[in-house]
Amino acid sequence: MERRRQARGERRMAEILDAAADAFAELGYEKASTNAIAARAGISPGSLYQFFPSKEAVARALADRFVADMRTAHASAFGGADVAAMDLGELLDRVVDPLVAFNLANPGFKALFARPDMPAALAESSQPIQAAMLGQVESILGARVPGLSPDGRARSARVLVRIFQAMTPLVTAAPEEERPAEIAELKRVLGGYLTSLSA
Distance between CA 136 and CA 198 in Å, rounded? Predict the structure, then answer.
């Protein structure tokens, strides 16, 4: 009986986090109230407060879930491949596709993490994964453009990550039938920058 109640509670928490992700994506973090989150989850605000004492607590739990999911996407994008041996198109497919898929599956991610006024606790939860991503991109640059200095690799990695971050909203906002063309443009821009580093 206790196990069933615990499973029900975990399901309810997941439903609340799903509703919060939708609310943050549609309304923005500031405008998404606990009442709006509860309504989307199909529960009363009082029921929401049984699981989370505040909107900030919901956001922290959602941030933790996003970070865990992002780690999985990073493992698919960067794990165990000989990036120096891949042709550029294959490399871009391997890296870009899982990261785009993560952003498509998690529209609330940007609403939570791309805020200029992001609370320090949320910023801290994403820093290790952001640092790991920069490190992975630097490793790719080291393998593919060995002539770059360490400072040049770090700078170029930041540029590549920022290009990806800047263009991702164009991809996620595109109608589904146009999305492959938008992804191709993202890869073209990243590929052009990578190619210019070798010139």
Answer: 18
Q: Say what the pLDDT of residue 176 is.
A: 95
Locate 129 and state its tokens: 């994964």
**141 and 60: one domain?**
yes
* pLDDT at residue number 108: 82
| Tokens, residue 93 | 């497919």
Tell me, rounded to whole angstroms, the distance of Cα 111 from its chain centroid.
Answer: 10
Q: Sign (positive/negative) of CA torsion 17, 21, 26, 30?
A: positive
- How far is 128 from 114, CA to CA, in rounded Å? 16
CA atoms within 13 A on the CB side of 174: 18
Indicate if the pLDDT at residue 120 is higher than 80: no
Better pLDDT: 107 or 50: 50
Copy the structure tokens of residue 47: 């029921």
Closest by Cα among 60, 78, 58 to 13: 58
Among 53, 68, 84, the domain-final residue is 53
